């Protein structure tokens, strides 16, 4: 609700450092498969996010080129600092891809040891590596040796494969090794790989991790769907920053809202229909620069599903976005649903979208 403030509990820090990258707010936009392309990242920056991550890419594909891969790796000169996230299973391939990412212009290399998608686990990638500390440590070493001294190396993990003691021991073995080798930060998601998206993220585990590593940089992830969620995680766990994932899709406003709370100001009012229209228009402009006008409308439909959650008539608006095929269709959506004349009050996301979580495996490798 509006009027809430973040200064009820003292903040440990309102800045964040990742290696040589100094950020003026303790938040980042996570790597989101199929979503966090240059358009989404640029929009996030324009709305106050100080650091973003590209969608995860498979290490063996980075150097192969191709139209789709080149499009995935586009960086805008205005969006630095920006990180690139890699996923794979072979240390040598990881190292080669990390070097390619740095040469391409990314300011950090992030290693994905968290993706819970079944096909990824079956290929010994992502979250699977939490069950194989020797290979995980070999990958970290290979990546660090390939890019050390040029950019920070960071790591994304879930809190383990499952809830067994062995899984927890593996987690801390990999975590400690990462920092010992020189990694600049580790992002920890409070669910296990086995959980995928079922049940709450265990923030208490994040507090344990932060206490364990001391002054090393830990970012937290999981169940961050509102600005107050982000501030609560910071206050309750003592971590250094938050990694906002699904809560940022179709909701760039969250970054401005977090900044307001961290500055001790009240939570801003929910975005009006006009402000929502402005954000959507800008998002499509950014997509059009990559995909052209028609391609941008088609690409935007999956984002429109999330933008619709901020609309008072979200079911109808969602249907309208999904039906779009041309720029004229988009204009019709705006005229029908995003005019101040319809007199509809704004809404705000209050909790995690259960339907989206249930369908998450079809698109997500950000956890």
Structure characterization notes:
The strands form 2 sheets. Strands 3, 4, 5, 6, 7, 8, 9, 10 and 11 form a 9-stranded parallel sheet that branches. This protein has a two-stranded antiparallel sheet with strand order 1-2. Helices cover 44% and strands 12% of the residues. With 367 residues, the chain is α/β, with parallel strands linked by helices. The radius of gyration is 20 Å and the shape is globular. It has 2 domains: 16-269, Aldolase class I (TIM Barrel, Alpha-Beta Barrel), CATH 3.20.20; 273-342, Non-ribosomal Peptide Synthetase Peptidyl Carrier Protein, Chain A (Orthogonal Bundle). α1 packs antiparallel against α11, α4 (91-104) runs parallel beside α6 and α11 (273-307) packs across α12 (314-322).
Give the SSE layout:
Blueprint: E1 16-18, E2 21-23, E3 27-29, H1 38-46, E4 52-53, E5 57-58, H2 59-62, H3 67-72, E6 82-87, H4 91-104, E7 108-113, H5 118-122, H6 133-147, E8 153-158, H7 165-181, E9 185-189, H8 203-213, E10 217-221, H9 227-237, E11 241-244, H10 253-262, H11 273-307, H12 314-322, H13 327-337, H14 354-358
């Amino acid at each position: 609700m509006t009027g809430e403030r973040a200064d009820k509990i003292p903040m440990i820090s309102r800045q964040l450092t990742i290696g040589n990258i100094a950020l003026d707010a303790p938040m980042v936009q996570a790597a989101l498969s199929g979503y966090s392309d240059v358009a989404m990242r640029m929009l996030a920056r324009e709305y106050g996010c100080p650091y973003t991550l590209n969608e995860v890419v498979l290490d063996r594909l980075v150097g192969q080129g191709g139209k789709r891969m080149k499009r995935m790796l586009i960086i805008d000169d205005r969006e630095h600092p920006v990180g690139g996230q890699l996923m794979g299973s072979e240390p040598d391939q990881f190292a080669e891809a990390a070097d390619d990412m740095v040469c391409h212009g990314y300011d950090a290399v992030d290693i994905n040891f968290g993706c819970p998608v079944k096909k990824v686990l079956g290929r010994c990638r992502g979250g699977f590596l939490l069950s194989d500390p020797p290979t995980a440590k070999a990958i970290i070493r290979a990546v660090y040796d390939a890019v050390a001294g040029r950019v920070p190396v960071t790591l994304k993990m879930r809190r383990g494969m499952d809830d067994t003691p062995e899984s927890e021991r593996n987690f801390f073995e990999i975590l400690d090794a990462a920092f010992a080798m020189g990694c600049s930060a580790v992002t920890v998601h409070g669910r296990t790989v086995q959980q995928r998206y079922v049940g709450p993220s265990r923030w208490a585990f994040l507090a344990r991790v932060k206490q364990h590593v001391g002054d090393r940089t830990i970012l937290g992830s999981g169940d961050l769907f509102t600005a107050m969620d982000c501030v609560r995680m910071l206050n309750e766990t003592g971590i250094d920053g938050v990694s906002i994932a699904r809560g940022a899709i179709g909701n760039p406003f969250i970054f401005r809202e977090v900044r307001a709370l961290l500055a001790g100001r009240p939570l801003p009012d929910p975005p009006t229909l006009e402000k929502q229209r402005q954000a959507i228009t800008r998002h499509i402009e950014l997509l059009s620069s990559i995909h052209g006008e028609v391609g941008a409308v088609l690409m935007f439909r999956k984002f429109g599903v999330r933008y619709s959650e901020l609309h008072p008539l979200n079911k109808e608006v969602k249907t309208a976005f999904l039906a779009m095929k041309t720029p004229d269709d988009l204009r019709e959506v705006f005229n029908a649903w995003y005019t101040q004349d319809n007199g509809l009050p704004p809404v705000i996301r209050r909790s995690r979208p259960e339907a989206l979580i249930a369908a998450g495996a079809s698109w997500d490798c950000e956890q």
